[in-house]
Specification:
Oligomer: single chain
CATH class of the largest domain: Alpha Beta
Number of helices: 9
Order of helices and strands: HHHEEHEHEEEEHEEHEHEEH
Strand content: 15-25%
Strand order of the largest sheet: 4-3-5-12-6
Structural class: alpha/beta
Distance between the termini: 47 Å
CATH topology of the largest domain: D-Maltodextrin-Binding Protein, domain 2
Number of strands: 12
Largest sheet: 5 strands, mixed
Helix content: 25-40%
């Protein structure tokens, strides 16, 4: 294999952390993959991977080399796009990590796939914090303030957390007038998969006031499951406004305690910084910014 072929093998091993899986994707044997990596390390006079019987991990030098290789590939794809854009549509594979809000992201992704049939999406729906560069993602969507200097960030739109229940549930149990009233209700809670901690309900309270008691009736690491439970009248849930806006407008859900809530969140699209952005990623960024939160377009 030549120099560029060895680079391709290196990128696949860095992504999969497996000679066998990298070989499967490349259509060669794991032995051939190992020999290619050995030739690359010999040429560079540097060990790129720590190998053991159980795992393969990047060395510090390997991680640095990986970032440079990704920039090289991105620049090559950008050059190809600039030369062929008049006659060729964006193509290739995009690996993206998204939060578990299927109802928000899936319609937009389906529309993207219909518009760009030559782009393959590899989607990981998870709430865990991923290392975009280390794990080989092309882009991620997350909330919170971006803090990784290796990434470019673009705001997609804002949302609020709201408390909701069905009118039938409130007729039976009463409508809470203050956060303390939640002690007499069944609370449907979302927990973070990677920590097991409850998602915080942003209830405003006095400085010396205790945390409101939230009797838990249902717990799930899937926010979609919490949404399903609240729509069946099982209790009160704290959900993003975009998930329940239409149900509230139709009268199927009712918001409560709005004046006691203080929350504003932002969805960010993050991707590795490089001099050039591949064509497939450019159109993905533009599509999500235009379609995910149309009302926030231009922010």
């Amino acid at each position: 294999m030549d120099w560029l072929s060895n680079i391709s093998v290196f990128l696949h091993v860095a992504k999969t952390r497996s000679f066998t899986e990298a070989g499967r994707l490349l259509g060669v044997s794991s032995s051939a993959v190992g020999k290619s990596i050995a030739r690359l390390e010999e040429r560079l006079e540097t060990r790129l991977f720590h190998r053991s019987t159980r795992s393969i991990t990047l060395t510090a030098e390997g991680a640095s080399f990986l970032e440079r290789c990704r920039r090289i590939v991105a620049e090559a794809e950008a050059a190809e796009f600039d030369l062929c854009k008049s006659s060729s549509a964006p193509r290739g594979k995009l690996r993206v990590s998204l939060p578990q809000v299927h109802s928000l992201v899936m319609p937009v992704l389906v529309e993207f796939m219909q518009r760009y049939p030559q782009i393959e999406l590899d989607i990981e729906l998870t709430d865990r914090i991923v290392d975009v560069v280390e794990e080989g993602f092309d882009a991620v969507i997350r909330t919170g303030s971006p803090g990784d200097s290796r990434l470019v960030a673009r705001s997609l739109g804002q949302f609020r957390l709201v408390l909701v229940g069905t009118p039938g549930y409130f007729r039976e149990r009463g409508v809470p007038q203050a956060p303390a009233d939640l002690a007499n209700h069944g609370c449907l809670r979302h927990t973070f998969h990677n920590t097991g901690k409850f998602e915080h309900w942003p209830l405003r309270r006095a400085v010396d006031a205790p945390e409101p008691l939230l009797p838990t009736r249902f717990v799930s690491t899937s926010i979609e499951a919490v949404d399903h439970a609240v729509r069946r009248g099982l209790g009160i849930a704290c959900l993003p406004d975009f998930m329940v806006r239409e149900a509230v407008a139709r009268g199927e859900l009712q918001q409560v305690l709005d004046e006691h809530l203080e929350h504003s969140g932002t969805f960010w699209l993050l991707w590795p910084a490089s001099r050039h952005t591949a064509a497939k990623l450019r159109v993905f960024i533009d599509h999500l910014c235009a379609r995910l939160f149309p009302a926030n377009r231009g922010q």
